[in-house]
Amino acid sequence: DAEVSTRKKTFTEVQTERSEQAERTVLIKCPPKLNEKKLLQYLSTHGNIKSHFFFENRGIHALIEFSEKSSIASLQDATGIPSAAEHHVVPYKSRLFTFTLKNPVSQAAEGTPVHLSPQSHIPVKELIQKLHHADSISSQMYILLNEYQLTEENIKLRFLACSLVRDFARAYFPDSTVKPFGSSVNTFGKMGCDVDMFLDFHDTQKHATKMKKGPFEMEYQMKRLPSERLATQKILSVIGDCLDNFGPGCMSVQKILNARCPLVKFSHQPTGFQCDLSVSNSIAIRSSELLYIYGSLDSRVRALVFSVRCWARVHGLTNSVPGNWITNFSLTMMVMFFLQKRSPPIIPTLDQLKGLADEKDKHVIGGCDCSFVSDLSKIKPTKNTETLDVLLGEFFEYFGNFDFRKNSINLRKGKEVNKPESSPLYIWNPFEQDLNISKNVNQPQLEKFVAMARESAWILQKEDKTQRMINKEPWGLAALLIPFGKSNPSKMKNRMKGMGSETIRSLLDSLKLNSANSLQKAVGK
């Protein structure tokens, strides 16, 4: 199974392999009436094509991965500069090309329909229809996972976007790399999610160890600045201007340099992604790798995370705009914690993973211990055999009755710990131990989460699956992906005893509002 063999590689191996693929890749905007065979025949004159696919993004595009990097130079040599009749062009030669037909009439007649790889997931309404036909909640959850997870093609496109930004950075910093982190690489990304990328100069430090020979201490003369933050801001400012002024297809470039983590936001039109570029954030990379490991250990992990996140989105518990709601990252960490707490546990705690680490896995970043094992084969598989049907219900049961007033969630230890301060929801940052990753969540949002979790647990316990299937009504996971206020708001009131009356009132109001538009919203992201 190809899926499984790619799964067992270490995080770094997968990243390196995909970055190398991206360096041998070009993106071509194709003519509308295209003969696929002729296009590939022509491109093959520049070198062997290793893989390719087509997708739709304001016209048909082809992603072409050559076997050799030299094929790109050969193609670039054969490519002309656009004629500047109305506009003047910035003469930057990238790996983005536009092909048009020389004899549109005769060539268009030879056009063949090409298979287009989808670059977005289906709307929730369509998903609910698909879930009807499943035979268990487990299979519903795997259907959702398959519809929402990043496809192989989409991942290639993400790495290409990073590689194209890297080409710009290398004009100033020849040794630099641009790598994706977060949801693009941690196995929990959903079709349509943004691309978080960072500019890394750390390969230059590895270089330093080679310089030990000879009688002299040798170092470059470099500009010195009073702080790392200032250096980061200056570098991002220049790269941001560069993308804005010269980057083909880089639109809406925003430099947000005073944020806690300075970044440049832009829309990359050729690939269709919203991108956030920052400068090397080693701890964020370790978080991406940790999630990659958890996602690779057991197929139930990702299926549960995707279902819970889709559920939260439908009910307005998460949102694409920053605010007081729970983030997807916090929600993912809550699922991980729940899986550590099963008996026997489905995934190990971070301390257990640290215990398996060898010398090359040791990472201390800014005083934070980020060590954990990277070789998946060293981690014993779980003996837990619970089905996803059970786990989904138990997840809602567990957090519907969790003592959030007193306890915090700690993935290092895999157990509830007394809250160090009074935030409504306290989830320890796995690496920066003095940070709460859910500090933004306020009391009404937490209580809304608890109410929805209780309601969902109740629906799963009480529903008569057979009857609902006969009546052609949504059942199982599908029944949880419909805003609850729709069916019977009065039923919910009884199950919310013990909550502040204010919160309940605002919750019921938001349900009435949400029921109409949250399906729309859920489709959005």
UniProtKB/TrEMBL annotation:
Pfam families cross-referenced by the UniProt entry: MTPAP-like_central (PF22600), PAP_assoc (PF03828), RL (PF17797)
Keywords recorded for this protein, A-Z: Magnesium, Metal-binding, Transferase
GO cellular component, one term: mitochondrion
The Poly(A) RNA polymerase mitochondrial-like central palm domain, residue ranges: 137-295
Molecular function per GO: metal ion binding; poly(A) RNA polymerase activity
Transferase among keywords: yes
UniProt record, GO biological process: RNA 3'-end processing
Reported cofactor(s): Mn(2+); Mg(2+)
Domain RL: 10-79
Record-annotated PAP-associated domain positions: 390-425
Keyword Zinc on entry: no
Top-level taxon in the UniProt lineage: Eukaryota
PANTHER family: POLY A POLYMERASE CID PAP -RELATED, POLY(A) RNA POLYMERASE, MITOCHONDRIAL
Annotated protein name in UniProt: PAPD1 protein
Species, as recorded: Hemiprocne comata
Taxonomic classification: Eukaryota, Metazoa, Chordata, Craniata, Vertebrata
